[in-house]
From TrEMBL:
Signal peptide: none
UniProt keyword annotation of Metal-binding present: yes
The protein's name: Probable succinyl-diaminopimelate desuccinylase
Names of the cofactor(s): Zn(2+); Co(2+)
Source species of the chain: Enterococcus rivorum
Domain (Peptidase M20 dimerisation): residue spans on this chain: 186-317
Pathway connected to this protein: Amino-acid biosynthesis; L-lysine biosynthesis via DAP pathway; LL-2,6-diaminopimelate from (S)-tetrahydrodipicolinate (succinylase route): step 3/3
Xref: Pfam families: M20_dimer, Peptidase_M20
Gene3D superfamilies: 3.30.70.360, Zn peptidases (3.40.630.10)
Family, per entry: Belongs to the peptidase M20A family.
Reactions that this protein is recorded to catalyse: N-succinyl-(2S,6S)-2,6-diaminopimelate + H2O = (2S,6S)-2,6-diaminopimelate + succinate
Record-level GO BP terms: lysine biosynthetic process via diaminopimelate
């Protein structure tokens, strides 16, 4: 039996190294969809190598690099620690109160793009691997670090590529995606992204609507039909009633009561609209990008079939093309050993009861479940700043999560049965 307190002391004694590591990661731009992780990959590889950990680098797409590092006993069971090195774009720099690549520490926060999603969590994973290696902590199994390059674009060159090519496998996985301090996410909604293209007939704007067919006007009618997916009654599986109830209670307790029921509904966000060429020309094309998230009780195919049925009633000229994220809702049972190891060590670290909940978004977790690898997510975050301006994360949460990562790894890999 390992001594949790001694390991926790090691984390606290080395927390400055952890925070410095996180700060340096934030200073390296790795925006996606640009998708260039060359610089951040070189930094992580050097840090691991300097600490006696060998790495393997895979480049399935130009400038998109996967990093694999392993410690422990390769003959025992395997635990994957996974994080992505890419971030969403910073957007309008004038709307930031600080440089998004400063990595500055101010008022107890680490500041910068990716602070919450998810360079702070990634730093914690890297740090936990180094700490366990540096202090020769005995592991009956193998801890595998997988740093992937394109989670934010929903691409195929990170986790899916590693799993399909059998680069990694394991009996459990933890992804350091942002979560609340006491509530790792053990399940995610599904995702249905699609691009709607509506075609019209151009004409002189002064004669509309007498001549031509306006693609923008038809697209507005189409959007109204698409948004009715939110009203569809969904019947979740009976075995998920308890998890759904716990997850909805979590929303209330964390002052998100306005979103209660989000786990049982299809959500629909019209993200972009592009149409027409000039105000005095009847628009001949309008392209709309839509993001729907799917609860348990429905599938991607069922959702798309409903949308197409509704659009066909309009008698408009349209096409639909899927892109980005595509999945049905999925989860890992709370009783699974990896879930128990993480939840128990959150409770130990924070001295408060922890429990797993559902997430209203989706993530790389779905790929691990497709390969029958139990997985959950837990990472430091200032949730309201994710993907927004002035992204930040509390320093103490970075340390807390790193402590959980260290304890959970040893617990899971050394636990019998």
């Amino acid at each position: 039996m390992f001594d949790k307190e001694k390991l926790s002391v090691l984390v606290r004694e080395n927390q400055e190294e952890l925070i410095t590591l996180c700060s340096k990661l934030l200073q390296i731009p790795s925006e996606n969809p640009e998708g260039d992780t060359t610089e951040i990959t070189a930094f992580i590889e050097k840090y691991l190598n300097e600490n006696g950990i060998e790495t393997e680098i895979f480049e399935p797409d130009p400038k998109r690099f996967n990093i694999i590092a392993k410690i422990g006993n390769p003959n025992g069971k395997k635990l994957i620690y996974c994080g992505h090195s890419d971030t969403v774009p910073v957007g309008d720099l004038d709307k930031w109160d600080f440089s998004p690549f400063s990595g500055e520490i101010k008022d107890g926060y680490l500041l910068g793009r990716g602070a919450s999603d998810m360079k702070a969590g990634l730093a914690g994973l890297i740090f936990s691997l180094v700490l366990l290696k540096r202090h020769d902590v005995a592991l009956d199994g193998q801890l595998i670090l997988a740093v992937v390059p394109d989670e934010e674009s929903g691409g195929d060159y990170g986790v899916p590529w590693l799993l399909e090519n059998k680069v990694i496998t394991g009996e459990g996985c933890l992804i350091a995606e942002p979560s609340s301090e006491l509530n790792p996410t053990i399940g995610q909604k599904g995702s249905c992204w699609f691009k709607l293209t509506v075609n019209g007939v151009p004409g002189h704007g002064s004669l509309a609507p007498f001549v031509g067919t306006n693609a923008i006007v038809d697209a507005i009618r189409a959007i109204e039909k698409i948004r009715t997916v939110t009203d569809l009654p969904i019947q979740p599986p009976k075995e998920l009633e308890k998890l759904l109830a716990v997850s909805n209670q979590y929303l209330i307790e964390n002052e998100r009561s306005e979103t209660k029921g989000v786990f049982e509904k299809i959500t629909c966000n019209v993200g972009t609209i592009n149409g027409g060429t000039s105000s005095n020309v009847v628009a001949d094309k309008c392209v709309v990008q839509v993001d729907c998230r799917l609860p348990f009780g429905t599938t991607y195919d069922e959702t798309m079939a409903y949308i197409k049925k509704e659009l066909d009633q309009l008698e408009i000229d349209y096409t639909i093309e899927s892109f980005g994220f595509k999945s049905s809702a999925n989860y890992t049972p709370a009783e699974d050993p990896i879930c128990q190891a993480v939840v128990e060590n959150i409770t130990y670290t924070l001295e408060k009861p922890a429990y797993g909940v559902l997430q209203w978004a989706c993530s790389d977790a779905r790929h691990f479940r497709e390969f029958d690898i139990p997985v959950l997510q837990y990472g430091p975050a200032e949730l309201e700043t994710i993907h927004g301006f002035n992204e930040k994360v509390k320093v103490h949460q970075v340390v807390t999560c790193a402590n959980v990562y260290v304890l959970a790894a040893v617990d899971f890999l050394n636990r019998r049965g």
